[in-house]
What does this fold into?
Amino acid sequence: MRPSLRLLNLEVPSLQGSRALYVCSGCRQEARPRPIAARQFLRHASNADSLSERVRRKIWGTDNPPGEKDPYGGQGVLERKFSKQQPPKQEEVAEQPEEVEDLTLTDASYEPATTWAGLERVGHLNRWNDYPRSEADTYESFAVKTKHNQKGPLSLAAHQAAVEICLMHALNKPLVSVCDVTEHEKPIFDMIYECKIQPNGEWSKALEYPNKRTQDTLAYIFEQIGAQPAAPAAEETAEDLVEASELEENGEIADEPASDSQDAPFFGYQDVQDEGFLSLPLTDAVTKFAYLKRFSQLSGHYFPDPIMQQISTVKQAVAYAQGELNKKPKKLAEYLAEDQRLLSLPNVKIFDKRRTTLHRDDEMGRKKIIEAALRARGLL
Amino acid sequence: MKRLQLQRWSGSVLSAQARTGGRLQQRLYTAIRHQSTASPAAPAGHDQLIREQPQAPSIRPSRPSQSRYNLPSPPVEAARESAKLASLHARLYLPSRLPLETLARSLVDASADPDPNFNNESLATLGHDLLTQYTSEYLVCTYPRLPLTVVFAAMYAYVGPKTLAAMAKEWGVESVAAPGGEVDPGYLQFRRLPPGAEVNPELITGTERPHEEETHWRKSVTSRVVYDNEYGDPVKAGVPPSELPEREAKNNNLGVSHEQASSTFVHALMGAVYLHAGRPAAKRFFEQHFLSRHLNISDLFNFSSPARDLARLCARENFDAPVARIISETGRKSRSPVFVVGIYSGADKLGEGAGASLLEARFRACVASLKGWYLYSPLNVRVPSSMEEEGAAPWKPVHVDLGEVII
Amino acid sequence: MPIQGIRTVASARNGVGAFILQCKQLDFHYCDWAGSSRGMVAYLRHHLHAFAKANPQIEIRVSPRPNKHPVIRGVFVNGREKVICVRNLEPEQIGKKANLLREASGEKLKRTTKPVTSINESVRGIWSPYHGGLNGV
It folds into this structure.
């Protein structure tokens, strides 16, 4: 509140009584309530009869003075407009209750709606955004919803992508089709997790399975991925098979991850077993594209074109996702605060925030005086 | 002043263990100064008095930095963080043996922190004595015939409070708005006088001078040596140790003027340099910062009747009576005449002066001849304190004069 | 009272005994984001420590001043301030500006026409209207 206004509020009640404090004449004039005599001449829309009518009555001394109603030009434009509209309205108001009664009589099952949900939409122009949401309208992200930034999940994603691309290479299938299945079921992921990659430089021969069974299962599953129509059913059967066998064979491995593995990304796994996938080359354009697409799908990171040009190994892709390639620039204050040459000098002081007058006041001991004065006035 | 005593005091200042109490020292100091010769019994008395004092808690309990607002002055560890303090240390070319903590302590006035372990009162007492000693021996040895009133004025000009305040300003020492634990230790910390307070009370009462209430009695210059301070101003009598707490409690609420706080700081810094870096460093500091200032001693004289003084002087020194003679003149009848008058004692010309009238010229000539006498300065002056150094040349007595003319 | 002393204050002669550097504080302000601070940031990174080490008697404060041009602010013993804007300058140029502030006395710039200034009074004396011409009055 501005001080002048506040002063006025304080002063106005006391104006009639004692005038102990001074209020300037202009403010006093503004604040004083309007005299009643002046108010009488105001024209309000709600007034039943106009000013001229009242004057005429007073002059003639009767309630029905003779002559024209308003000798000075009659009604105004607005008044004329209102007087035209009003009579039919009054008639409507009078008629309406009967109609409503008729309605209630005819339809007994009528229930007044409390919300708009379920009501028929009328009056639209058949545009797309006038229709209710259909299945085609729901948006599903290509990548995972959460973007991974930690080293563990990123390595897991990179490893999974590498294993899958290796498998597709080995099966001679279109590489990009691995992206059709965003997330695998847990048993399949377990098998992918246990696969190792030899850093020998060839995608088709790099994969190393823990056992023959895994190899067969994975090959079977990834055979299905390319064949679109039959895929879901086949996959389900395969999963059932695998699940059963997994539970029988190594239950403890399945139990190993955290209990809330359904919600956690990568089923609660923290980090990869081997780092062999890091040395895989991304020189072949098709492989590179497929790998980066799958990796960005799993990790949630987007690879811009210039970065994609720079990347030539899996390691670089992971490094980019970890933010090592183009790091956020460090603040100068942080840099200087670590500089030993400056720290050893006693006459140098480095601040990481802007210095304001308040800091200076605190340094000179003035701040506590200001605060005390503000407190004493109740302003703090 | 004897060197031994200073060293003994220095121990108490350095350790901050034994509470000596600044005012006590002032009391001791005034007591010693009043004796014409330093008595050998004085040190023993010191020790007794020091031991009688109750032992204060050695170090304040360390508190978190949150409660710095509760402290009267910044904590000791804040001195290392302050860039202002470090730059002040370097700007004054202080010896590296003088730590920043002591420099920070010398910036805390007694009005900001009444605790004698953390304010500069004890350092200031020491520094005040050193400054007074060095300045007075320099003046007396360099100008042995200087009248006492002029010596007082010269002392005031060299180490008076106004000069020290100007010096602190020239050193770039800023002062705080209000003392407290949160302020930067590089500022001069003192409690300011409330607005409208009397800065220089006209009449100082409570001195040691007898019959001080008789204001119209003549005060001889010699009595000012005994009863007054080094500038010839009346000074308050010392307080016996038993009354110290009451006096301190009374003084706690009062502030000090900026001039007084600045001069206390300069005194304290001098004491700190002496304590930490030793006597040679203190003397160097004194020469560099105090003696290097420009003071024209011949401007400090104010003669009322130089002709009479000169006549008395010649009579005392068995010279012939002084005679004023016109040496030359020009334009006697013009608007601006100039007379050159010489004062002769027998065949010797004592001095000459030029003026627009004969009287003025004679006055100036008398002043010139008197200044010629009073401002005599022997060559190759050595001060007594130079004998304190190791391997000093054997002492040759300096010129001691009869003193000024007494009318 | 034959002679009285006149109280004065001994005037300072900076440099005769000790030399007090007149610049007591230098504030370096920069902006982390803006391009006009690029030279200042480089100066603070690579050259500040040498400058600070060579001038221990100057208190150096480095603080950001976001969305503003970089500035060097010098505070002097006589209480005055001098501020130099160093936008878009190279580190070497900024070093020169800092040195300029270091060597300044803090006074306003003024033209010196006399080759020598002295605190000693003139030998001729100062003309006075009250001395001389007394006969005519």
User: Anything to note?
Assistant: Chain A touches chain B at residues 346-349, 361-369 (CB under 8 Å). Residues 338-376 of chain A form one domain. The mean pLDDT of chain A is 75. DSSP finds 17 helices and three strands in chain A.
